[in-house]
Task: structure prediction
Amino acid sequence: VTDAKLEELLRVDVPPTRDPLFRIAVLARLERRRFQRQVARIVGVGAVVTALVAVNAAAINMWLAADVTRLAVALAVAAATVWMLPGRTASAVRSFVRTWLGAFF
Amino acid sequence: MIDEDAALIAEIRNGSERAFNVLIDRHQQAVRGFLRRLLSDVADAEDLAQETFVVAWTRPETYRGEAGVRSWLCAIAWHKARSAQRAWFRRRAREATWAADVAVQVEPARSPEAAVVNRALDALPIEQRAAIILCVIEGFSHSEAAGILDVPLGTVKSHVARGKARLMDVLGGHA
Result:
């Protein structure tokens, strides 16, 4: 048996040169990864925020009750938190500030 | 081609999905071929091949330009295969059981001779098998294969020589 014959026998069943289905499978896997990371982030941030609010519920209530305009600040913080959940924090903050500045000025 | 590949990696670092698609189209055959022969099980090989490209997308900075992009991808695939193999060994107490499972999972080859050589290839130790696949089938040089497998050049040469001799013996016996 020659080297060439061995090579020929080993080369059977080679994957196709181009395979769009494989490329789609890789891209789908990447999207799944992104989605899982996003869900994990939302769950993590949500859990932390919920815990903080629960622990400080009494203090928050007193702070809000002292001045009704503070409710707007609390709502803005809540909105910013929700805004930040899906994306990266820095870019989300920039986007949030731009949107709100654009709305008022 | 090497410069084009390096340019693709630079674009991928900047988040270009177009470049990533080109990278997959250009190198999927080599990565999938390597893993299919290394693992025998097509489903596991496809899974690891996809994971290899996911790593290429998420960690393009690990490509340092010392070797070709195809070598870099095959090195990622090799590390993935080794990790997967270690996991299998943890699940299975004896290598004989694993080898028997693998033998059942081999895809039907196109000729009896090819089936014999495939079985003989599967029976080789994984390092020898990887060296044979890279140097004989995928066309890498011995030094490129040494870089991919992260072993000395002499070790690759020895793996290829011993592996080929073993395959020749098996084929000779069936000729």
Observations:
- The mean pLDDT of chain B is 86.
